[in-house]
Amino acid sequence: MAKRYEVRSSISRHTAEELINRLANDETFRKRFEANPRTVLFEHRIDVTPESLPEKVTLPPADKIKELLPVATALVDETASPFGFLLLFIVFGAMPVVTVARPAGDAAG
Question: What single-letter DSSP state applies at residue 55?
């Protein structure tokens, strides 16, 4: 069965943008976030179940996050608030990828 990701979020666009900016520009904060992402997310009103996120993550390089925010800002009207989802995209993208050898003949790819 596929893993279910359970997330509850009550973050404003402004707060999400600030958090993304910190992930892009504050090395101390990045290290704290990587060491304990669930705690930092919870402090910012995003609750992720323990099964949904590893205890530690490796964030994308800061320069890549810096490139992402202006693109998202340009694509989405300032009255819309997708930045909580953008933040989750960054965080879940930082999760380790696990690959498993598939048996021969598996048509899944």
Answer: S
Instruction: Classify residue 41 by burial, with Cβ atoms within 10 Å: 0-12, 13-18, 19+.
Output: buried
The Cα–Cα gap between 85 and 107 comes to 32
What is the model's pTM?
A: 0.69
CA distances in angstroms from 105 to 2, 99, 100, 108, 109, listed in the order given: 20, 17, 15, 9, 9
Q: How far is CA 95 from CA 19, 37, 78, 89, 92, in A?
A: 18, 10, 29, 10, 5
Task: Kindly tell me if the per-residue pLDDT of 104 is higher than 80.
Answer: no
Q: Where are the domains of the chain?
A: 7-93
pLDDT in tens, 2-15: 667 677 778 777 88
